[in-house]
Design goal:
It is a single chain. The protein has 135 residues and is of the alpha/beta class. 38% of the residues lie in helices and 18% in strands.
Length: 135
């Protein structure tokens, strides 16, 4: 991580990273069910030299006031889509749940290929070598 942060202008001073005299810090927004996970993430960030605070917000407020408007540093949330891991709603360039506003033609292509694959192993080649039962 030091090389990555240095590449965007941060320097480590003591236990923290700074740019333009300001420490690097992130606010983690989450829902009550994921608060403990968010606290672990915050602790990991702190150990890496990044200040982190956790704010627990009710789900509909988190989605409407922060995620849909892009007003967040980091969000920890979960959404279930059923047994098929088709995730273009979240990661596709035009997905209605693409709150991070990812726009990447290569990702869109992989998502499209996954949607049209006929076999489960072809949908996710990383799982093809494991002994999972087919859905």
């Amino acid at each position: 991580m030091p090389g990555l942060l240095a590449g965007v202008g941060f320097e480590r001073r003591g236990k923290r990273y700074y740019r333009d005299g300001k420490p690097l810090g992130l606010r983690i927004l989450t829902i009550k069910d994921l608060e403990e996970v968010a606290l672990v993430v915050a602790d990991d960030l702190e150990r890496a030299g990044i200040m982190a605070e956790v704010e627990v917000i009710e789900y509909s407020t988190l989605r409407r006031a922060y995620m849909q408007k892009g007003k967040f540093d980091l969000v920890l949330w979960s959404r279930s889509f059923g047994p098929d891991p088709e995730c273009s709603m979240v990661w596709g360039s035009t997905g209605p749940l693409n709150f991070c506003r990812l726009k990447d033609a290569a990702v869109d292509k992989l998502l499209a290929e996954g949607r049209t694959a006929c076999q489960w192993q072809r949908q996710n080649p990383n799982h093809a070598s494991r002994s999972y039962p087919e859905p």
